[in-house]
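Entry type: protein chain
Record version: 2
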Amino acid sequence: MSVAVKVRVPGTTANCGPGFDSVGIACTIYNELELILSQQGSLVIEIEGEGKEIIPTDEENIVYQVIQTVLEKVGAKYQGIHIKMVNQIPLSRGLGSSAAAIVAGLFAANVATGNTLSKDDLLDMATTIEGHPDNVAPAIFGGITTSILQGEQAYYLRFVPPVKLSMVVAIPDFNLSTQAARNVLPQSVPFKDAVFNISRTALVIGALCQGEFHHLRYALEDKIHQPYRQHLIPGMQQVFDAALDNGALGAALSGAGPCLIAFAQDRCEQIGAGMVQAFASNHIKASYLVLDIDTEGAKVIGD
């Protein structure tokens, strides 16, 4: 006897300027995962799309590992585990590829074993694996989330802006690992920089909640992570300037980078082209995507 499920998980952009490790948005770019569990057989992992050449297809695969975490937690045992991943989210670019993989494995395994765990349970498990909830929360619940860790438990607030907001993502043609981007951060920041970020995080959440997007130009400013990471992304400030010059409401580093994201309600193609040209002037090849806010989060798309 076997059980099969197919799920879809959105990519995410985190930090949103000043909201370091706390604010995230689900985006309309997706990874799909098909999971088949059976009493006989062995581990089989197939990968299509992003990361096909480098993602492990053995027990080192993170999706397999989190599936096993769920199976152990709910007391289910299967010898045959067939995983098929179809990835659209670029790896190590700041669009939540690792969070999507973790959430996909947890969510699919939970559905396949009878939905014993709640989404809040999955959030805690995903946060333990990922280290912080800013990407995994929107990947699970969709929309925009602001999240915290209280001890070992994650708490979140989810909302969707009252009017449409698009995201123009400039994707440079190089990878940047989250660890490398974290290694350049300081152990402490000046008090005035902390106040700067607190005030702007409050404003960015209020602006997104109310649809008061004209505040985003300044609300997205940051002093505790972007300035320290800027040298890792050639032309970052010029790309931000190009986005604003072409009509963006505001711009920020997407997650740990190197993707840069501009928020807009119109002129998205013009903004994207301007951002790509700014990268090109710094000898960096880039492309762009226009994404919307995903409001569904992780979901079953077939079984």
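Comment: The chain has two domains: 2-160+294-302, 166-292.
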